Fold:
Amino acid sequence: MAAYPTLKMLIDGEWIETGEAGTMAVVNPATGQAIGHCPKASPTQLDAALKASDEAFVIWSRTSGADRYAILRRAADLLRERAPAIANVVTAEMGKPRAQGLGEIAGSADVIDFLGEEAKRKGGRLIPTRGAQLIAQMVTHEPVGPAVLLTPWNFPVNLPAKKIAGALAAGCTAILKPAENTPASAQLLVECFVDAGLPKGVLNLVYGDPGPVSEHLIAAPSTRKVSFTGSTAVGKQLGALAASHMKRFTPELGGHAPVIVSKHADFERAVAMCAATKFRNAGQVCVSPTRFLVDKTIYDQFVAEFAARAGKLKIGDPGEDESVEMGPLAHGRRIAAMEHVVADSGGNRGEVVTGGSAIAGSGFFFQPTVIANPAPDSRFMTEEPFGPIAGVVPYDTIEDAVRIANSLRYGLAAYAFSGNLDEAHYLGRALRAGMVGINQLIVASPETPFGGVGDSGFGSEGGEEGYLAFTDTKLVMMAKAGG
Ligand code: NAD
Structure:
């Protein structure tokens, strides 16, 4: 990999290398070695970013949709041009295989394009009036104001891209605070917007300890909208803070996606797709398929084939070997989290069929793990593992499968495989989730809304909803000036 970039914050158009609150190390999770040092913003530096985004809002919110689109379009093109270099940084910071990083970046450019285009497309509407005196009732979508964007490390380009593009397209300004362990991925994305000609102050980038930085930014009077992706626990805390200041809040939180495999499914296709998708990004995906609910007549065969495929995955440092299929977990505490889940198996709590342990050596590697028949109240079945652990549970009837699938408070993604049309429609309707995939495991595209229900959050990113999330609805009712 070329040299790791020097980390800098972007405040009011200036790249700033010095963090007045000190620095924090950035570690390559495949080696455990520090690859860079990240500046931490002081409250004064955060206030400078807040002031910049507040002042820039006056101009940016009045810039035409066509002009906003033109800048976003150039940023997307720059991101595509720079993808090979940025993918290397993504791999070094969070351990994603390079091909997956390239896919993430290509998808991010498409999201920026789509949301930029919404700036040109999204008008309001005219509502017919009652009575002759009223001549127009106009509904418009006004930019909500300066936004604070808080993003995690698992999609260190795509998640910031979705939030930045939604905010900027809608006419909002923004301060991005990316995850502590993936700052350079976010910085290289932000550089694309700056080099595309974004006026100073419209997009700011700060780093630091997530708790205090987020609290400072959310509580600031100028902040009008907060968009957060991360865990349910932190989402609840930040949501409470946003509510206490009456700030708009969009939380995209954890999930524990069920996958129902019916006896009517194309078995080989389903098991191949499930095994390949489960371990993508080492399972560190909020919509990762995780609880596999399989008809009891095909359960044994599913467990055997799924586990065999999991056991054959090539694991290693993706920065050293491009053919690696699964890299390390993003940081050391994820290993402890996996061990915590596996510890509650064995006996009648579930059988670890393959994997189950950390891999010795440097870096944060954990074996792809399959637990057969985990107990309903086991940690696996009740807590989001957010890692390379899958569980397989047999079911008697399709209604039982839906009951198990819907039994948690999470409701982000849910999936089902069935070749029976009536059953497929039933599952699409009955699964309680913000997104349902039938006969496939993809629930994200630039044009479609992405978001959950229950403890997985509310609101959407992506699609037209990703634009509208950064707007307020406004009504102008106009009457004749005189009699
Ligand atoms: P973590 O909660 O320590 O950190 C996850 C993210 O939240 C990081 O980006 C971090 O910067 C941020 N964060 C942490 N504390 C915060 C605070 N007080 N205020 C604002 N932001 C804060 O957990 P982790 O071990 O790094 O990651 C695993 C957990 O995070 C899982 O529970 C998973 O649900 C969640 N997560 C979810 C997503 C997602 O896409 N929804 C992505 C990454 C992590």
The radius of gyration is 23 Å. The mean pLDDT is 97. The chain has two domains: 9-253+457-475, 257-446. Residues 150, 152-154, 179-180, 210-211, 214, 229-231, 234, 238, 252-254, 286, 333-334, 384, 386 surround nicotinamide-adenine-dinucleotide (CB under 6 Å).
